[in-house]
Amino acid sequence: MPIEYVVHTDELTPPIEAMEKYFREGRTSIIQAAFQHSYFVHPDDVKERTPYFPDRARYSRKYYPGVQKGQSACWRDIPVTIDDNQYAQIAWERYSGRSLMRRSGYGVRHIWGEPWNPDFYTAGWNLCYMPFWAGMLTERQHPYPELERAIRQASWELYFRDNPECEPPNGVKDQNLDLTDLLDNQPILVLGKESVAQRTHVEISSRSSANAPGDKAETIRTVRSQAHQSWSNIRKAVRALQGLPHDPFGTPNVENSAKSCVRKIQSETALGFAEIEAILDEQGW
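Now predict its structure.
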């Protein structure tokens, strides 16, 4: 039986408007649905350390023309190392005590933007873990300004309303929204550690990694040598395990053994895959 079709001659409904309509029919809103699955850094962790990596900034053709990942540049006379989004992801993992959920539909977003600014790039008050569909609506390509303002208002309430960790940076300000009303009394979600034991382990691991990077690098070197893996295969494996693009492996057996080696590195160093890749970059391996 041939499929039926209808020729549409009316104006097109804007997709965001259509999505909002369906959410409303389900007795919620885009903003409420986004906040039900978006997570912020705990305010206490932000007060303890922010930004997490003050010497890192994301690449920008405007502010760092011609500078690529891993190269040095200056931000207002302050030396920085240029990154893609890796160190923001590492900062999120250390703040939250959890590994990123690769290929899950979640991503780390910069609430107030300006990732090229080292004061903003890995600052806990500027990070939110959001579903891709919600994060997309805070970007210039597919803007839903009401959601962007609501996310920024949440950041303001959590980190700057009372006893702020620091003076609000330029452009960070109260959005004058009543979130209680907007969210219909729905709470803001702060991502906590999975257990007290895990939190203690992660905090110790983070401090150890931050204070003794040479030890971690030496462990990586030793495990790789014992497994007789090439650095190129280690790099391919660590990117593959993150679900990131990588050069092809020679054979499936080579791929499996390289991934096994990287998992052993992770086990012995308590580092996330993104952190392992960062050390590979720093060491030039």
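Confidence is low (pLDDT under 50) at residues 196-211.
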